[in-house]
## 1
Amino acid sequence: MKKSIIVMCALLATSVAGASEFDMPAAACTPDAPAIQNNRYTITGSGAVTHAGAQTGLITLYCPLSATISAPGNMEITWKSDLADVLNNYVNVSYIKMAKSTGAISQVKFESSTSGTNNNTVQVTSGTFTDTYNQSAYVYYVRVDLMRSSTAHSVTFYKVTVW
Amino acid sequence: MLIPATTFADSFSMNGAAFVPSDVAVSGNEYITTSGTIKLSPTYGTPSRYHYVVPMTQSSMTHIEIGASGSADVCLEYINKANSTDIGDLGCASGNGSSSYQIVTTSFTGYDPSGYYYVLLLELNGSADALYYVTLY
């Protein structure tokens, strides 16, 4: 590949709070193709991601767990929602591992706003999981799905921490 | 793939869908993301480019490994900290053209985080091209 002029559309920044923890603000995650191409999202001053203006539909964010940390067993998410609706209004977060040998993925941990408090205030929720952590055999990432089907409601995702 | 586990104590990994598309790739609807991977849109067939800034947390790196199909090509570009000059490719891993899933590993020398910062550059060139993951170690 010849030398290229690099245009950085966004500066992605991961932060490692400690050798055993990985933090990823929403704005540092990469939106999927439909979210970008349809201008569905906006980034707030605090680095959160939410729907832009009158946009509705699904916004998917990919947050790679790129750094080496100690074997995690917890996932904490920060979010805000004003309605719990598993089909039309939610923030769903999945901790996923991809097998390097095949490219196949499997979900390790799942959390959803629909099982929390949906009163349009910022919520911090967490859960535990058990999984064999093996960075030589798997690549790990967090997938975030923000969905609203009506402009009468809103969902916001702030950050995810895995430790 | 026989890699001592200790080498991954200081590694960097990411899935393909986390690459940031170039403005051209976005405006041209050149790609799709699915199951954590990034693939070239079936209706698009010329080089399409994506980037990712490598966090400077590694003290040393000598290998680039990809899980990919087609001729997906990932290069580690090194850029001079003093003047932001893109020096070129420190190392690249490229798919062999097969539509089957494959793991490709390439070694490189010269990693120097004190003088340079690093960007991964992904190129997708054909309809069979997909990137599942990249690991630097």
## 2
Amino acid sequence: MLTQASRALIGRRLLQVVPVVVLATFIVFGLIKLLPGDVAVTLAGENATDQRIAEIRHLYGLDRSFFIQYAGWAWNALHGDLSRSLLSGEPVADEIMRCFPTTLLIVALALVFSLAIGIPLGITAATKPGTWLDGSIMGLASLGVAVPNFWLAMILVATFALTYTIFPATGSVAFSANPAEALRHAILPATALAAGGIAEVARQLRSSLVEILSSQHVRTLHAKGLAPSSILWKHGLKNVSVNLLTVAGLLANRLLAATVVVEAVFAVPGMGNLIVRAAIERDFPVVQGVVFAMVVVVIAINLLVDLLASLLDPRIGRR
Amino acid sequence: MPATKDESKKLERAAAWQPGRREFLALISGAAASQALGLSAVAQGTPKRGGILKVAAPANPSSLDPATGGSGADHPFLYTIFDTLVEWDFETLEAKPGLAEWHYPDPNTLVLKLRQGVVFHDGTPCDAAAVKFNLDRVRQDQRSNLKADLASVEAVELGRPNEVILKLKHADTALPLILSDRAGMMVSAKAAQELGKEHDRKPVGTGAWKIVTWADNDKVVVTRNEKYWKPGRPYLDGIEFAIIPEVTTGLRSVIGGQNDYVYFLAPQLKPIADRAKNLSVVSGPTLYCIQLYFNWSRPPLNDVRVRQAINYAIDRQAFVKATMGGIAQPAAMDLPIEHWAYDRTVAGLYPYDPEKAKKLLAESGYKDGLSINMVSYTDQLTVQKQEVIIEQLRKVGVNVKFTNGTIAEMSAAFFGTEKKGEALLSAWTGRPDPSLTYSLMFSKDAYYNAGRAEPPPGLAQALDASRLRENIEDRKRAFATVQQLVMENALVAPLCFQYELDAMTSKVKGYRPNLLGKPKFEDVYLEG
């Protein structure tokens, strides 16, 4: 059961959602409207006339003032209607419900790769500080951070999808339709995303673990004759777990943002592709909808991280 | 198969060589095409029924209702679901019967005689009432983007059974080809009325396939129309379009085997497609004209000599070689050589002549050169074209400065109310009837006449004349005058016609490119 402290935390976070969503969507809406370019011209088609463009502006309410347009969107959103794409007419909520699972699978898989590979690397480096092994792991980690994910994505496609056709070069399959195929499609994009994540987890874990392992209380544990493995697992890792959790939370948020680039390389119809296309075409209901969804997701991830942290370190919940 | 030096040379020669219409026809039908153009021909065999064609499509449709959509990239989707009243010849774009045959009993009346027994996907008949509903919808519906297409139609009436009569405000022989495009795509009246806006996403036509799903930016899936009226067609059980905006990625999806066919490839991708195993590449000229649009309402481009100087200063052969990998046709006007209305007398108007350009500039008072602000787009291939234009014009003393942005942004800035820049480097995607091409760009109030400037004397009359007579020779003569007026007055600087470039796996057979450059799949079948 949730403690009172946890419930209070959830309550505070839920209250935060409202102002953050309003602020984020308002700023994004303003940016779209500030940018030059006009969705009415696109909507009017190839044989556009000035008259038809004016008609379309009126038809879609694009001739109303900025604040009225935003208020109209916000009012509908408040009633659970994210309205429809100006260009394709598909309800924005449907688009998000379709694209989000695809992005989520890639991000989740990338997070699993980051942790599953980054943690052992970080521990290995931390337990052998200053050795060649530590040096090589940290060197690799620097490389992982430095390599742009779109470049790595293209190398992965060239190698594992075109030269050796092990994985598909493009596209996605819904996890609910065929889990195995969905994973096969997600592996390359997730790997491209995870390179930076693995490096970050390894570096962060190493530095905090090295600090703990060289602290006075660990020296005392050694003096008491505790086995090194016991010191590492029971005392070292437990102490860095909150740190690691924070890193994982931040990483999850960053991976979500990074999908914009990776989804383009792999032609994955996810949230990144959705918002890029909508922003280019000034399809503001879609942009607003995606921003709204992303704000909610990021706040939810942060909340989850805080709740888990308070479980790992009960002092946090009491603060 | 890797591109050999020989093949590259053939391509260069192909770019320099401009076949006449007759030669082109011969080439298209014969194996000579593959040799002379250095392009792979698609082997023909006995068509087989069955299978799903997986297509990498470069853009999400703007709508699947022909009347409410707006993008030129919608057609490959629309052609699968809808038939048109009039069709066109793949090689020359001459009009031919589709859902209807037509005749003009007098210049102000067009009679459509409908094919009998055609039904929509929802079972309702595509009869005279349905056609009248469609034409009225195109002309009057609030959401129709096509009102201007049928502006010459006064009324649509029902005649004898299976006949629809279009009463015209004035003679308009462009209508048959206009009806080969969006305006002639017949939607089910029942579906359009019952579904309303939803018809954009759940279209009902008479086409060879019917819609299954459209997931935005992801997939469009169509399946066989068992009651299709063309005997034996379609061969394919269905088509799955995967929306992949990046054509390079689309090509990768075909090389990697996720898709069978990709279209609208950039010429720069041809060597990559050629290198891939088991891939064939087809290509053919299209109406898609890369060009400099001018704002000729204000200085310096309101001076015809400056506009002519720019036309003389551009070396189109070099432009094609440098920016299109040699796979394009240098443009002398807004119609390619293969088009039925192409006029040879205009073709020689602006040979590459930098000296003449300098002389014209000096005469117009720019002896020491001038600066021109142009607008264009940020993508890499367009920027490459800008670099060539800057360099070529610099040689005659014209300093060009480009301001770039997205297509939506810069097109609106140039053609819309802002009137940014003196010229726009962009493209004209072409229209089935050339009268649309010219009236949409050069009429006084046309949106694509950026300055809304008065056209040269005689152009409006010549355009009217092009729609006056039905006889194709008469129309050719009228278009010759239109093209002469446009190019003598240098209202535009056409640069080159882009080739349709498509790649497909070896199991895809029967595909033919067309001059409009928008793929149709009804002859396509899968082998193996």
